[in-house]
Amino acid sequence: MSQTTPPMTPAAAPAGPVAAPHGPRERRIRFGHLALAIALVVVGALGTTALVTMVSATDKYLALARDVEYGAQITEADLTVVSISSPPGLDPWPASERNRAIGNVATMPLAKGTLLTAAHVTDQQLPAAGEVRLGITVPGERLPAQPVRSGNLILLVDTGQGSNGGTTNPDPRTWQGTVLRVSDDGSGGGILGGGRAGDVTIDVVISAADAPMIAALAANDLLSVAVLPGQPGS
């Protein structure tokens, strides 16, 4: 018995228009975001340019060509010109004002290579009015073990006998001064401190009224030297 295949019925046509197939969705450009991104790029580029310019820009300043002692007058040979970017926190002396720096007096010991600033010099001569420069020679054992340097504030101590005629003075007289220069007789190997046999000669700025007494005590080996706290090397 044979089977009869039913005839195929054609699909019914759609009743209305067929919608076109959807392609990829278009992404809308948000011009506000685009403008912000461009602005950020521009700001970053300008900041980088400014930083590079600031770092690479150099100016000419005055520096010390050699060591200068406290109280010494600045000369042409003491100065040199360096080209560097402006150092933060410092106000170095412009090289264009070299002539104004010459003739000033160093207010502290200045090492070779130091950038010169207004704080390093003064137009006031040393010693000042009412002061004198006195040279005293002190035995090495009456100096501190640390080196005594120019610019140090020191205390000169009278080590003579007390008024009661004893061998010690419980209330010694003292005078404060500022060291201008230190030299020795060469027997200490250049170490200007205690524990050595040679004598050390110190140029010190003191009150003119005290100079005669201090000179007399030094001549009789009755002075000791103390470096006040906060000084270089103390």
Helix and strand layout, with pairings?
Blueprint: H1 31-56, E1 59-64, E2 79-84, H2 98-101, E3 105-106, E4 121-122, E5 131-139, E6 153-158, E7 174-184, E8 199-207, H3 211-219, E9 223-227
Antiparallel strand pairs: 1-2, 3-4, 5-8, 6-7, 6-9, 7-8
What would you say this structure looks like, in words?
With 234 residues, the protein is of the alpha+beta class. Among the domains are: 59-122, Antifreeze-like/N-acetylneuraminic acid synthase C-terminal domain (Type Iii Antifreeze Protein Isoform Hplc 12, Alpha-Beta Complex), CATH 3.90.1210; 131-227, no CATH class. The chain has 3 helices and 9 strands, in the order αββαββββββαβ. The strands form 3 sheets. A 5-stranded antiparallel sheet has the order 5-8-7-6-9. It is elongated and about 130 Å long.
Oligomeric category? single chain
Query: What is the beta-strand fraction?
Result: 15-25%
Number of helical regions: 3
Summing up helix and strand content along with how strands pair, one would put the structural category as: alpha+beta
Rg over C-alpha atoms, rounded to the nearest angstrom: 42 Å
N-C termini distance: 129 Å
Overall geometric form = elongated
**Biggest beta-sheet profile:** 5 strands, antiparallel
Tell me how many strands there are.
9
**What number is the mean pLDDT?**
78
- Run of helices and strands: HEEHEEEEEEHE
Strand order of the largest sheet: 5-8-7-6-9
Taking pLDDT < 50 over at least 5 consecutive residues as the criterion, the unreliable ranges are 185-192
